[in-house]
Amino acid sequence: MDWVAWHGPYANPESPLSRRLRAVQAHIAAWLDSATSCRVVSVCAGQGHDLLGVLETRPDAARVSARLIEFDATNVQAARLRRTAAGIEVLQADAGDLASYRGAVPADLVLLAGVLGNVSDGDVRATIEALPCLCAPGATVIWTRTRRAPDLTPAIRGWFADNSFTEQAFDAPDDVLWSVGVHRFTGRPRPLPPAGRIFNFT
Fold first, then answer.
1. Which residues pair with 197 in a beta bridge?
2. Per the domain annotation, does 3 fall within a domain?
3. 13: in domain
């Protein structure tokens, strides 16, 4: 997969990818409207269109600190050129490696846009099970996943519940296959392990 070319459909505002982006951005904006602590981690962040696109429109962007983790060097450069707030870090690293999160967690918002559809089903579950190591108390997780058969989203929503997350929203328009979920962490955070992997991106 060419992960730079993957961003191409954003040029068409009516593409499914653009529509999904707007859904994710709406949830980010709603979270910002109510958040008192604004530490963000974006996993496999690409060019950062979701978070950075919202922050560009917000007069309170300076209160956000964030780490965007992305492996592709071209995408990293694009995100770095776009960031406008001093507290935004774009780290070129493997988001599947726990070491990439040191110093950035526990986070108040974890973005998993474009992640759960590009790892194995087993790694989807492992990623959700690892989230208590990334989340602050009361943190929000925003995630995306296709509903193409076999649809894994019912299992994903169950795995979030099993790991002390309460569903806040699940967007699944009838005319597209994407879905966007929002879950709030209600459990007790766990320390970040000193080493290990969460997932392998395919």
1. 97
2. no
3. no
Residue 13: phi, psi to the nearest 5? -65, -15
Task: Specify the CATH number for the domain of residue 134.
Answer: 3.40.50.150
Which amino acid would we find at residue 171?
D
In sequence order, the 6+-apart residues with CB closer than 8 A to the CB of 163 are: 128, 129, 131, 132, 187
Q: How far is CA 120 from CA 32, 50, 88, 201, in A?
A: 31, 24, 30, 8
For 40, the 3-state DSSP assignment is strand
**What CA–CA distances, in Å, run from 15 to 9, 12, 18, 43, 161?**
6, 5, 5, 23, 31
| 193 belongs to a structural domain | no
pLDDT tens-digit map of 137-167: 999 999 999 999 999 999 999 999 999 999 9
Cis ω before 150 (30° cut-off from 0): yes
**How many structural domains comprise the chain?**
1
SS percent in the chain: helix, strand, coil, step 5: 35, 25, 40
Range of the domain at 101: 21-185
3-state secondary structure of 61: helix
Q: Chain centroid to CA 1: how far?
A: 19
List 182's β-bridge partners, or say none.
Answer: 142, 169
Q: N- to C-terminal Cα distance for the chain?
A: 9
Question: The whole model's pTM is what?
Answer: 0.95
